[in-house]
Amino acid sequence: MLELKHLRTIQGLAKFGSIAACAENLHITQSAISHQLKELEVRIGAQLFYRKTKPIKFTSQGQVVIALADNVLPQIAAAEKQLTHSDLNSRFTLAIDCHSCFQWLLPTIKQFQNTFSCLDVDLESGFHQHPLERLLAGEIDVMITSDVESRGDLYFIPLFGYELQLVMSNDHPLVSKKSIQASDLAAHALLTYPVDKRRMDVYNLFLKPSGCEPLKWKTVDNTSTLLQMVSGSFGVAALPEWAVRTFENQDLIATRPLGDGIRRHLYACVRVADKENDYIQAFVDMTREMNASH
């Protein structure tokens, strides 16, 4: 006898107070609203509300149907949400194209896993070719990146900003400077991750605009080794502030701003269709909260 459309209509009528407002908010015509209400009254054999009253006053039968709608519709919405997030969709894969992101990302993932134990959370690097194409193919759910592309099929959600700093040993000659100029690196080795320099912020935003190069480029596989080499005076490095905080707090290294300061931003890149996904929104909110100090 009763259909979901009837329940949604009478719930909307009770919520918005008039047929016109109900139609506008439910995105259907007033005539359709009137037709559904009349159809329901015929089916139950009773009037649902008193005509020509402002605000609308419901009959006892109408109040019964409203109570039913308020009870049933939330249960249906919850069941639909649970089915959407069933085991078929329990995989949640993150990828990064930033070597130093592990420092802040791993604690965030741990809390995310503890909160959503139903998910099988995986993390992989995006250092291989075409990570965004893998995102579009469904192999990755969230790509953490600092590079924004103007594309209609991808959506970039801001996470937090950070400053790129030059890191050096405490007795390095550049410690005496308040800030570092690109030409200062001409006499020093620059330690970097094994990435093409054309993908590096320190090259694109600092060295290249000034036409400068370091004395030499040295590649190091991971952040921990890189910082130990910096501390041992094997060269300098340009790293985000979060990557160096532990070493700096232990007075093992020194940091200086690059030029007037290089400020960057991290984003969660997702498929446009998934930008309002509950799990993605929860991960974004958790990331912002846990890294608000950057």
**Secondary structure: number of strands:** 10
Largest sheet descriptor: 8 strands, mixed
Broad structural category: alpha/beta
- The 3D shape can be described as elongated
Keywords: Activator, Amino-acid biosynthesis, Cytoplasm, DNA-binding, Methionine biosynthesis, Repressor, Transcription, Transcription regulation
Main location: cytoplasm
Family: Belongs to the LysR transcriptional regulatory family.
Subcellular location: Cytoplasm
Structural notes for this entry:
The protein starts with a helix and ends with a helix. It has 294 residues and is of the alpha/beta class. 40% of the residues lie in helices and 22% in strands. Strand 7 (189-192), helix 7 (201-207) and strand 8 (216-219) form a beta-alpha-beta unit. It folds into 3 domains: 4-84, Orthogonal Bundle (Arc Repressor Mutant, subunit A); 94-158 and 266-290, D-Maltodextrin-Binding Protein, domain 2, CATH 3.40.190.10; 162-265, D-Maltodextrin-Binding Protein, domain 2 (3-Layer(aba) Sandwich). It contains 10 helices and 10 strands. Helix 1 (4-16) crosses helix 4 (60-84) and helix 5 crosses helix 10.
